[in-house]
Amino acid sequence: MLSDFFILMKQELVIMVIIFVLLLLKIGADMSNEKMMNLANGLLLLNLAAGFTGNQPGVLFNEMYVTNPLIVLEKNILNLGTLIISLQSFSWLKKHDHVPEFYVLLLCTLLGMFFMISSGNLILFYIGLELSSIPLATMANFDLAAKRSSEAAMKFIMSSAFASGLLLFGISLLYGATGTLTFSEMTALITGSPLHIFAFVLLLAGFAFKISVVPFHLWTADVYEGAPVAVTSWLSVVSKGSVLFVFVSVLYTVFKPIAGNWYNMLFLLSVVTILIGNLFAIRQNNIKRFLAFSSIAQIGFILVGITGSSQVSSASVVYFVLIYVFSNLAAFGVVALVSAVTGREQVSDYKGFYKTNPVLSWVLTIALFSLAGVPPTAGFFGKFFLLMAGAGKGNYIPITIAALNMILSFYYYLRIVKAVFMDANEQPIERLTIPAYSKLAMFICVAGILITGLAGFVYDYIYALSFGF
Amino acid sequence: MNYSSYITLIPLLPLAGFIILGLFGKSLTRSAGILGTFLLLVSTVLAFYTAYNYFFVSGKINGIYPPVTALHYTWLSFSPGLSIDMGVLVDPASVMMLVVVTFISLMVHLFSLGYMKGEDRFATYYAFLGLFTFSMLGLVLSTNLLQIYIFWELVGVSSFLLIGFYYDRPAAVAAAKKAFIVTRFADLGFLIGILILAYYGGTLDFNMLIYRLTATNLSPLTQTPQIGFMGISLLTWALVLVFIGGAGKSAMFPLHIWLPDAMEGPTPVSALIHAATMVVAGVYLVARLYPVYLLDEAVLQIITWVGALSALLAAIIACTQTDIKRVLAYSTISQIGYMLFALGLSGYGDTATGYSASLFHLFTHAFFKSLLFLGAGAVIHFVHTNEIREMGGLRKLMPLTHITFLIACLAIAGIPPFAGFFSKEEILLAAWENNRFGYILGLVTSGLTAYYMFRLYFRIFWNRTPSYSNHHGEGSWTMKGPLLVLAAAAITVGFIPFPHFVAVNGQEEITVPLRFSIAPVAVAIAGITIAYVLYFKNNPLPRKWALAFRGMYKLVRHKFYFDELYLFITKKIVFNGIAKPAAWIDRHLVDGFMNGAGWATTRLSESIKALQSGSVQNYMLYVFGSIIALAAVFIYWT
């Protein structure tokens, strides 16, 4: 039992150890920022490596905690995203006074996500969710001097609390209706009565809020714009990814009996999300806000994939999140660097970027191509599999809308590429020196974008672990 | 023996060369060529090792050489039943091609070290050569239809880049475009053919496809009455369409028009692409699917006639051209026509001797034709013109080029004991056995070949006293070396007992009776004699003859007006009848609709701006309202 505990929960345990190490260092040791960050990055690399040691399925604490190879893989993807974000925030954090706190908060949210993904019980799920969102509000406020950063944190915590309230209401209704909190027992008891559906809608709203599905997305742009870039990329990639993983597994297992209902709901939400996300993204001039809205549209595509509810669907969601980690973090990496050094965040600031920063321009371009879904970047394959999974059900309306919206998204992604390469600018962003850590992060991302799509084994591996019905 | 350990390196090394030279070529300058050549040298050694291994050590099982899938990799699997695979196929034909492609490419790489010296984009040139070699090797080693199609197109792209290498010359750009567009049209046929075969055959894999189609007659492809199109069975359609793709790449009539223009590229490139490798891809494709083609005699007969016609017409045109490279280009069309002619011959009888005769000719032709092109390159390098009327008497100035060119001419004319003799004999023997009329055509073509090749030879090396001084010698050893090696090959490769290695049913012996050789050799000698009379000394005879047959001469000199015909169809009919109305619709209706849609989208985007007010209490309101709406819709309505 005890050895099971150490083996099955190894990823959570490693993170806890790192959190305590950093906390104690904060109290006891007087380290320079750079040293601290070197250490933190090293520990995160260790954490990533630890995830690849063995992955057997298992259950702990009366089915409260569940793990299997797919879950381990999902956690590894999140670990990878964390490491990349940590590497990218180097140039921003080194001027900051509270480096260890940042890492402790970051890892606390990651720990929450891990518990959430591994939860086999609504209580643990809820605790994980809260653990992953409360420290995030503090992180959003991490530009301590900036007013808009505090505003972002304020908006985030209020919206978050509201969403949690709804979620909790849903959970209590569900408990009242079925008499159990364990996922595996609940499935058999859900029949699709109005009460069940109402409870499900509340739960769905909680999920939808976290992954910013329209119309629960409104907080996204304000928070993304105000928060430091590292936190924005964390919110848009790792936080969303983790909730998506849970969302798929909960939908495909617990709420399987009312699949007909949620299929229609997701169908509706995906169409609305893609449309609204794209329409807003078109006219954004702040590049962070722009990435926020484009990420909303991306979520719409993922929902299309989820509606397929086959093995291809769940595989394509995990696959897409992996690709999304690479593509979005590559884009955010460039934005983070530019923002940290020059403070410029407008799309028009990027005019003539290629003249002064060819390498960064290419990284940004490859990332945007992947986000838009231009072959042969991985983003194309990710979207392709999502749409194919969605088409598996034979409902071609969302697929058609999604495909048409891809054209729309080309417009706004290529608008930035055009600004970077073609537009003239009298005061372009000056030549930036790329710190070694950022270089490494960008290299990982670009390699991921170029390799993940073309190397078929990545998808095959995920497909083999996935499930559907 | 497991080939997979090293065989993938053969195509990957040139690819590595392409990537390295493409990225860092500018800083490498001269060493770029040496690096590219070295990588290809390793590839060539590995290719020869593979051939040795396959033919002499481990390939032979029960007296035949079975195909081996040396490597199989599922690249993209869409669902359990549908996947795109990449693999490496080792069988007699592919191993033979492997040797030819790497060897000729190596010679061209070496030759170019001298020929392209001082070129501005020297590294780029070698990068493109690497890309082409990679694509061609990938094509040769493909295990399935889709893979061969991918490499087929890659070959097209890289040849486009090489033909248009001198992109500041309008003629080169036009030629590159022409080559690309004409072959693309043919490739459309190829793609449709692939789709039909794959859909009804249920697989993309060559061996599987051949097995399914030949072993059982239950496939819908072979059942004519039920499924078909315009009264012709699907199998016939598919095979004809695939052949159209092959005919486009191999420049067969009437899709040959791109090849003579493609001579605008650097001459070594012509030696590589337009003599030995890319242009024979069509022959290779038909050979790859040969067991399937054997199911349908009608298609084989089409192939025979297309081949025979191309061989004859191209040979006639070659007799009147005065641009050295164009003569060689038409000669290539003619020789490839010969190969396809031989492949198709099995449609007339049940012997499949044409198959190995055809591939044998492909094999020998690669050596002497690339030798001719490289020799022509050396000549052009020396005199700085392509026009044979401005040449003459070069034998003293370029002794080595002279001798090797003579050897190549003798080989292509089919004079024993040079390589071309043996392969041509086999083709003519197959023709004699299956189709007597085809035999006559083959014989005439053979005579014409001997005539125009020696016309070229006498014009360049004899005819009149040279007006050139020996200003910079024949060229460096890197240019002479490949000529010597290829000349040695042109003399010797004919003695290889080729049908013993490459044959459609394992192996067979083809013995050509000695008296059978009398007619072809006599015809060839006759052709040479006429050329001697007309061109050995500068005399007025050729002009007199041309005047006497004025009308015919003009027709042939203008290549039967094929280019004009195409221009008339495209410019007058397609542009005015189809393109202009389409452009109008595009400009007014489609663009109008698109602009309208774009305008509407931006307006819509403006109008929902208010939704994002910035105050959290409003956001909560929307969330709350949405939940109520969702719950209401899904509880009460459904």
Q: What do these coordinates show?
A:
The complex is a heterodimer of chains A (469) and B (638). Chain A is 77% helix and 1% strand. Chain A has 469 residues and is mostly helical. Chain A has one domain. Chain A has a two-stranded antiparallel ribbon with strand order 1-2. In chain A, helix 3 packs antiparallel against helix 4 and helix 14 packs parallel to helix 18. The longest helix of chain A has 32 residues. With 638 residues, chain B is mostly helical. In chain B, 71% of the residues lie in helices and 4% in strands. Chain B is built from 26 helices and 4 strands. In chain B, the strands form 2 sheets. Chain B has a two-stranded antiparallel sheet with strand order 1-2. In chain B, helix 7 packs antiparallel against helix 9, helix 16 runs antiparallel to helix 17 and helix 19 packs parallel to helix 22. The model of chain B has no long low-confidence stretch (mean pLDDT 82). Chains A and B meet through helix 8, helix 10, helix 11, helix 13 and helix 21 of A and strand 1, helix 25 and helix 26 of B.
